[in-house]
Amino acid sequence: MSGAMKAKPDIHDVVELREPRGGQSVGAVGAVVELLPSGALVEFADEHGRTVELLDVPYEGLIVRSPEAAERRAAG
């Protein structure tokens, strides 16, 4: 399975980019910080938790990841 769980994210969901956007590449992982009418404001952070970039991404440009998958990736 691709890791996609649902089409539209909720606040604080972990999401992955379907295509490059801003300074982020395909597959970049971020967190939804605000829901907008046609997309989500997604925060991308570095390994220290500092915000690197905030992007307005259309919903169709996001893959919502399961919390369990995000925890497994973070654990290494």
Q: What's the short story on this structure?
A:
With 76 residues, the chain is mostly beta strands. The chain has one helix and five strands.
Key terms for this structure?
76 residues; SH3 type barrels; 5-stranded antiparallel sheet; 5 strands; globular
Secondary structure layout plus pairing:
Layout: E1 14-17, E2 29-35, E3 39-45, E4 51-58, E5 62-64, H1 67-75
Structure description:
The chain is built from one helix and five strands, in the order E-E-E-E-E-H. Strand 2 and strand 3 form a beta hairpin. The protein has one domain: SH3 type barrels, CATH 2.30.30.140. It is 12% helix and 38% strand. The N terminus is likely disordered. The longest helix is centred in the last third of the chain and has 9 residues. It starts with 13 loop residues before the first strand and ends with a helix. By secondary structure, it is mainly beta. The protein has a five-stranded antiparallel β-sheet with strand order 4-3-2-1-5, with no helix packed on it. It is globular and about 30 Å long.
Return the structural class. mainly beta
Number of strands: 5
Low-confidence stretches: 1-5
What is the helix tally?
1
| CATH topology-level name | SH3 type barrels
Mean pLDDT: 86
Radius of gyration, whole Å? 11 Å
Biggest sheet, strands in spatial order? 4-3-2-1-5
The rounded distance between the terminal residues' Cα atoms is 20 Å
Largest sheet: 5 strands, antiparallel
What percent of the residues sit in helical stretches (DSSP H or I)? Answer: 10-25%
Number of domains: 1
- The secondary-structure element order is EEEEEH
Strand content: 35-45%
Global shape: globular
CATH architecture tag: Roll
Provide the CATH top-level class. Mainly Beta
